[in-house]
Amino acid sequence: MIRHTVCFKLSDGSEESKNRAKEVLMSMEGNVPTIRKIWVGTDFLMSERSYDVILQVDLESREALDEYQNDPYHCSVVKTYMHANREASIAIDCEL
Question: Which pTM value belongs to this model?
Answer without folding.
Answer: 0.95
